[in-house]
Amino acid sequence: MKKYLSRLLVGVTALVAVTAAQAGAIDDAVKRGTLRVGMDPTYMPFQMTNKRGEIIGFEVDILKAMAKSMGVKFEAVSTAYDGIIPALLTDKFDMIGSGMTLTQERNLRLNFSEPFIVVGQTLLIRKELAGEIKSYKDLNNEKYRITSKLGTTGEMVTKKLISKAKYHGYDNEPEAVMDLVNGKADAFVYDAPYNVVAVEKMGAGKLVFLDEPFTFEPLAFGLKKGDYDSINFINNFLHQIKHDGTYDRIHDKWFKNKDWLKEME
After folding, report:
1. Which residue range forms the structural domain that includes residue 81?
2. Does residue 106 sit in the same domain as residue 145?
3. What's the pLDDT tens digit per position in 212-252?
4. Count: domains in the chain
5. Secondary structure class of 43 (helix, strand, coil)
6. Which of 12, 58, 195, 259 is deepest in the core (most CB within 10 A)?
7. Residues 96-148: tens digit of each pLDDT
8. pTM over 0.85
């Protein structure tokens, strides 16, 4: 009998330990009352800082809707992009929501939700190169200087597909684009949604936007490995908003309406 009770106690203890270990980011956020999301607020129109110091954007609004569905507050945790994965893994926030492309390399370190949008890399080039550069292939020459943001797929793609060109990465997108505007670079490689806005806001007639994407890049939310309960919740949430009109309303606010640009001036 004693042996039986001892085994039973061990089993119950193990079950409690496993249950505790399974508590994921969403459960933690509900208990805390706040969903903390790591993001680098420089990626228009996904997450950016307006003139009042508020972090706004397409992805931000999706995450706010998610937090509302959980009955909790939303908190954006501003984090440099090249350190955002280590910050998640050391519990600085619950999840990554920072325009992150779901790549196989990143997937070895993180679990990802289903994509909430698909984008692709495009080019901004100096106006003087409009007839000379028609695609990324034309830039694969050591005489050209390419810019992008450090740690992004723009950087990865440049080093892989335009490897002969000189490359210089920046901590944020505006710096890289201004390098191009000032004639210090020949092209900027980045996601299409950002470049649509950048050519209008910062191009000042000096840049040309080659809008044909040359990569396939699904953007998704990143969580710690093994947090399947949170992934399940997020995927079900995304499915819900894509069918109840919420997603379309948020998408149109940031991609079809440009009123938000006034908040950035």
Report:
1. 10-118+217-264
2. no
3. 999 999 999 999 999 999 999 999 999 999 999 999 999 99
4. 2
5. strand
6. 195
7. 999 999 999 999 999 999 999 999 999 999 999 999 999 999 999 999 999 99
8. no
Which burial class, exposed, middle or buried, applies to 93 when counting CB atoms under 10 A from its CB (0-12, 13-18, 19+)? buried
Helices (H), 35-172: 58-70, 84-89, 104-107, 153-161
Q: Which tokens in the block code for residue 50?
A: 């307006």
Are 127 and 43 in the same domain? no
What is the DSSP track for 134-170?
Answer: SSGGGG-STT-EEEEETTSHHHHHHHHHSTTSEEEEE
Q: Which two tokens stand for residue 133?
A: 């550069």
Please tell me whether residues 150 and 179 are part of one structural domain.
Answer: yes
Residue with tokens 């954006």: 76
Distances (CA, A) of 243 to 33, 66, 71, 218, 249: 27, 15, 21, 19, 11
Q: Are residues 42 and 89 in the same domain?
A: yes
Residue 156 lies inside a defined structural domain of this protein = yes
* Whether residue 110 sits in one domain with residue 225: yes
Q: How many residues does the chain have?
A: 265
Q: What angle do CA 172, 177, 183 make, to 5 degrees?
A: 135
> What's the one-letter identity of residue 51?
K
